[in-house]
């Protein structure tokens, strides 16, 4: 088995999804892949501007998000891989899951997006052939 992909943005729902993903990976005895996609529609990579600073801050937050989940998962003895990338979350999450041939994608129902609210989990369910768990609470 290739494992579980947890898509996280550090939101309250993502934290709940993280706990479920850790439990699921432990129950199935498979690796956990923690992914944070910095939404390029909101944080485009621009050069030498305030936009670049916002992009850097978003990336730093992404690294903090995946590290938090990784620390919790590793404490339970799970094999964990973390990735932070730039892209369109619903597209990159499905693409990543396909690349590693994941068994399941876990994502929170709502995220901390300020531009493209909601619907990421729904679009993942619609566009992926993999089991998808959208955690609401």
Question: Overview of this structure, please?
Answer:
By secondary structure, this protein is an alpha/beta fold. The chain has one domain (4-135): Rossmann fold. The protein has four helices and five strands, in the order E-H-E-H-E-H-E-H-E. The protein has helices at residues 12-28, 50-75, 89-100, 120-127; strands at 4-7, 32-39, 80-87, 104-108, 131-135. The protein has a five-stranded parallel sheet, sandwiched between helices. Helix 3 (89-100) crosses helix 4. The radius of gyration is 14 Å and the shape is globular. The relative contact order is 0.25.
Mean pLDDT: 84
Q: How would you name the CATH homologous superfamily?
A: HUPs
Distance between the termini: 27 Å
Instruction: Write the element-wise H/E pattern from the N-terminal end onward.
Output: EHEHEHEHE
Strand tally is: 5
**SS element count, helices:** 4
CATH C-level name: Alpha Beta
Low-confidence stretches: 112-117
Approximate shape: globular
Radius of gyration: 14 Å
CATH architecture: 3-Layer(aba) Sandwich
What is the count of structural domains? 1
């Amino acid at each position: 088995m290739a494992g579980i992909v947890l898509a996280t943005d550090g939101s309250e729902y993502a934290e709940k999804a993280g706990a479920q993903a850790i439990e699921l990976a432990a129950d199935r005895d498979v690796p956990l892949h923690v992914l944070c996609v910095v939404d390029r529609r909101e944080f485009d990579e621009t050069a030498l501007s305030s936009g670049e600073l916002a992009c850097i801050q978003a990336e730093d937050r992404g690294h903090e998000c995946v590290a938090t989940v990784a620390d919790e998962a590793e404490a339970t003895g799970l094999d964990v891989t973390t990735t932070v990338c730039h892209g369109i979350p619903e597209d990159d999450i499905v693409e990543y899951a396909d690349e590693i041939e994941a068994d399941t994608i876990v994502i929170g129902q709502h995220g901390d997006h300020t531009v493209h609210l909601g619907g990421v989990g729904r679009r993942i369910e619609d566009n992926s052939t993999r089991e998808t768990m959208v955690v609401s609470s």
